[in-house]
Amino acid sequence: MEKLRSLRGMADLLPEATRRWQHIEATALAHFQRAGLAEIRTPLLEATALFARGIGEATDVVGKEMYSFLDRGERSCTLRPEGTASVVRAAIQHGLLAQGSQRLWYGGPMFRYERPQAGRLRQFHQLGVEYLGYADPFTDAEAIAVAWDLLGALGISGLELELNSLGTSADRARYRKILMAWLGERRGGLDEDSRTRLATNPLRILDSKDPGTRALLRDAPSLADALSEESCQRFAAVRQALTALDIPFRLEAGLVRGLDYYNHTAFEITSNQLGAQATVCGGGRYDGLVEQLGGPATACVGWAMGMERLVLLLTRQEEERKAVAPHLDGAPQCYLVSRPGRAALQALALSRSLRARGLAVERDVSGSTLAKQFRRADRSGATWVITIGEAEAEACTARLRHLRRDGVEREFAQGQLPDQLLALVRD
RNA sequence: GCGGGCGUCGCCAAGUGGUUAAGGCAGCGGCUUGUGGCGCCGCUAUUCGGGGGUUCGAAUCCCCUCGCUCGCCCCA
Fold first, then answer.
1. Greatest CA separation for chain A
2. What are the Aminoacyl-transfer RNA synthetases class-II family profile domain coordinates in residue numbering (predicted)?
């Protein structure tokens, strides 16, 4: 029979990994709450039109990476490839924006049909933040600070913030013409991909990795020079705020971003330890999106982080620090050993009352010799072992022993044991 | 979608045409049927991702296929 396995690019998270994910999620939740962000959850499945209109028909994400299908009612549905479009849709649909500005965060799986590689899966997970109804440039810096500080709280080092301004759509339309004209005269110097982009999405050429194209671009007219006076001032205010917050950044003229809805501030936080998929967090301002999806004109900033990439970085850094054996993280505090029959039944009841008192308890269910059970108790990483044998069952007592220190064994009435153990655990 | 590397037990792995597919870790059992950590002994792959082919004979050679992985691309 053919072996059943998970689909390509869809990863199982086994207990060892899951502990790391929970740590990131718990850290992020506390961090977001302090930043005054509220959580929003939207469906994984949306109408295809939402992404086509929101992200842009010409983008790679919409053009070739979406998981789309017709449902039983012949409606075109798509597994969300990113979070922002859904959040904006939900905010419009429920009139959230009529109640004033919204600071939201979200998390969960996204789907993109791509060839998997390190830090890139078909089902991947993002943590994202959206500030809806905030035109103030300092908010851009605040949003960036929230991302930057979260990464700091997670203990991730070796990160760089790259920053650019895309200006307004009018600025870009103007620049687009200038760039197309300039590059058009130099077509021959461009790589093949860039030549096709000349017609479809010329700004993306700025992001090309082709050495020939990059060399040519050094003398190209810059987007910064095409920005309006107002856009320039706006960008200056963002930089000023970042400097005041003591967050270092590097101006990156080639940073264009792949989704159509961005304008003004665009940024990425990258790591030098991730290989080809270096971006840990990416985002920017998207002032036109709400209106484009049928809502009131609303200025917004946001970003998204790749969970898998965070996990990759944390794992790598833990390995470098040679952190303690990870299996001990899930170790029970106490391990219950018993003989079969009546004693085992008492052990079952005792384990339940210990858990009710907040202790992490594991009970041996093997029914093998006490020596074996002790061996397993030791391997489980537990600190305490509790024994109920025939004699103890008869007397309704249990023996308590510290596995990691002297191993002195004491006998208590089963009813007293939770209190006794709790007192010992506290010191 | 395009290129490179790889696929032997739950994990790490030796084996590169010849009788029974090393070893280590983990697991299980025993020495020790009421007491762990050490040690010793034993058990755990009719089978080498899958399917064809070559050969007296294949994990080892050839073809196809699937998967993993790295890079391009794309992005979180």
1. 96
2. 1-326
- Binding positions of A: 82-84, 112, 126, 130, 257, 261-262
pLDDT for position A290: 96
Q: How far apart are CA A101 and CA A88, in angstroms?
A: 12
Contact A114, A275 (CB under 8 A): no
Please name the amino acid found at residue A17: A
Domains and CATH numbers, chain A: 15-168+228-321 (3.30.930.10), 177-224 (no CATH), 331-426 (3.40.50.800)
The answer to whether A76 and A47 have CB atoms below 8 angstroms apart is yes
Q: Which nucleotide is nearest to A82 (CA to C1')?
A: B76
Which residues of chain A are modeled with pLDDT < 70?
A: 1-3, 319-329
Whose CA is nearest the C1' atom of nucleotide B67?
A8
Q: Which residues contact A183 (CB under 8 A, 6 or more apart)?
A: A190, A194, A198, A202, A205, A220
| CA/C1' separation A240–B14 (Å) | 62
User: Considering only residues 96-125 of protein chain A, which place a Cβ less than 7 A from any atom of strand B?
Assistant: 112, 114-121, 124
Structure tokens given for A343: 């004693």
Judge whether residue A309 contacts strand B, using its CB and a 7 Å cut-off.
Answer: yes
pLDDT of residue A328: 47
Residue where the block lists tokens 């590689």? A117
Q: Which two tokens stand for residue A236?
A: 């200056």
pLDDT single digits (tens) A31-81: 999 999 999 999 999 999 999 999 888 888 888 899 999 999 999 999 999
Residues sharing a CB contact under 8 Å with residue A109, sequence separation 6 or more, in sequence order: A44, A123, A124, A125
Number of C-beta neighbours around residue A106 at 10 A = 22
